[in-house]
Amino acid sequence: MPKIVDHDKRREDIAHVACQVIARHGFEQATVARIARAAGFTTGMVAHYFESKQQIVIASLRLILLRMDQRLTRQSRAGDASLLTVLSEGLAVDSQRFAECAFWTSFWGQVPVDRKLKRINASVHKEYLRLYERGFAQYWPEWSRWTQRVRDQVLSSLVTFINGLTASAVTSRGDWPAEKQVEQLRLQLELLRRWAGEQ
Predict the structure, then answer these.
(1) How many domains does the chain have?
(2) Domain at 149, CATH number
(3) Cα separation of 32 and 131, whole Å?
(4) Cα–Cα distance between 122 and 120 in angstroms, integer?
(5) Which of 48, 109, 112, 136 is most buried by its number of CB atoms within 10 A?
(6) Span 154-175, mean pLDDT?
(7) pLDDT at position 64, please?
(8) What range does the domain containing 134 cover?
């Protein structure tokens, strides 16, 4: 009897490994052959699922976004969750999330020179805004009373801050232990909440 292959699972496995390989070796050095080798597949098998390295990268981006959404949702359901604990899920506070943040940092370097990746990055950015906005709406009662301009400013400032914080954690890992990242996020949230309340 022939072995039943879960093709969706195999695509996800390749995307997961690609994330790890790009995080470890950088975008340019993460060839399809290297990704295939790390996944335990032949290059031909990877090519069966993805026509190009760019498609693998896009699948990795979607996988990271899905995992981020799942982590935020799981934290939101926890009885003692706060906005800080929920948003900390996006920081490079453990090995998996460090790899995801390192992947993002490498990906951002490609965005300015690739129109398709630029469009994908813009789309993913909107998804992150949606995830973060959901957290604000759930944990800050005053969120709905603020004007759209204030909410937009808070969201933009938060995303900019998290992007900078995760890039710092990736490039200088020893200087940014998990506790320090979370503390900086806590301070930023306090400043944003105070600023918004004064508007």
Answers:
(1) 1
(2) 1.10.357.10
(3) 31
(4) 5
(5) 136
(6) 94
(7) 84
(8) 7-198
